[in-house]
Design brief:
The protein is of the alpha+beta class. The protein is built from 6 helices and 18 strands.
Length: 277
């Protein structure tokens, strides 16, 4: 019989794995959350993110002006990441580092981001990223694996990448994109979406990151900074329910608030690790 695991060394680094945008373990989007008590080199953080091999690992450190938060995929640092921010706030509230009613404030490459608790869910306040229409590059339909006869309803770009609108949620679910072809077109991150029926989802999406080392991201908060303004304008509403139709799947609430997007979701811790490296 295995002995009961010993308590974490108080001088070690704590590393968590949290499933974000879900209430059930092994669904939603898994994120690493590394709690740093001292600065670490960028190369070390990148190597740990590659070791974790999750779509993103968050690195959190207390500074005189508050929490510093950074996000790394297995290959690059990201300017914004929703699910790993949600996971980080979840760890802070769950461990008691933040008390109920307090606001999690993070200094990031995308400015100051906040997370609050509301009606049992976590709510992230992110910058909106309204997409602009652009011409579809030649070969995009083929790279997405769309059969002949199907069309793209809309193609655009935001700060967080490309957005394509398809005709139905079924077409979004059926996509089988070719990552190499998308990279050859200069596409680093692409979100495919279609309008939902409102019962209960107003939008359905999938997100592919061939240029950042992510074949498909299970549930993507940052993409909804683009999707929120896009669908709010088309549906004439500021409150939307979203579903990301990856194999793991995940859902979130999206509310437009001026030039900000409020993203609400749940999270559950599945691992706590003592990092020895």
């Amino acid at each position: 019989m295995l002995n009961h695991p010993r308590a974490l060394n108080p001088h070690s680094i704590e590393l968590y794995q949290v499933d974000a945008f879900t209430r059930r373990p092994f669904q939603g989007n898994p994120a690493g959350v590394c709690l740093l008590s001292a600065p670490r080199e960028d190369a070390w953080m990148q190597a740990l993110a590659a070791e974790m091999n999750l779509s993103e690992t968050a690195f959190l450190r207390m500074e005189p002006e508050g929490y510093r938060l950074r996000w790394f995929t297995p290959t690059v640092e990201m300017p914004l990441c929703g699910h790993a921010t949600l996971a980080t706030a979840h760890v802070l509230f769950e461990t008691g580092a933040l008390k109920a009613g307090q606001v999690a404030r993070f200094n990031t490459l995308s400015g100051v981001l906040t997370v609050t608790q509301h009606e049992g869910r976590l709510v992230m306040d992110f910058p909106a990223d309204p997409p602009r229409p652009v011409a579809a590059p030649a070969g995009l339909m083929q790279a997405l694996g769309l059969p002949s006869g199907q069309t793209l309803r809309w193609v655009g770009q935001g700060r967080m990448g490309w957005l394509v609108e398809l005709e139905s949620p079924e077409q979004v679910r059926a996509l089988r994109p070719d990552s190499a072809q998308l990279r050859a077109l200069g596409i680093s991150i692409l979100t495919a979406t279609a309008q939902g029926d409102g019962n209960p989802y107003h939008m359905v999406s999938r997100v592919f990151g061939p240029g950042v080392g992510i074949e498909e991201d299970p549930v993507t908060g940052g993409a909804h900074c683009i999707l929120g303004p896009f669908w709010a304008e088309r549906q004439g509403r500021t409150q939307l329910n979203a579903f990301q139709a990856s194999a793991r799947g995940g859902e979130m609430g999206v509310r437009l608030n001026g030039d900000r997007v409020l993203l609400s979701g749940d999270a559950v811790t599945v691992m706590r690790i003592e990092l020895l490296a």
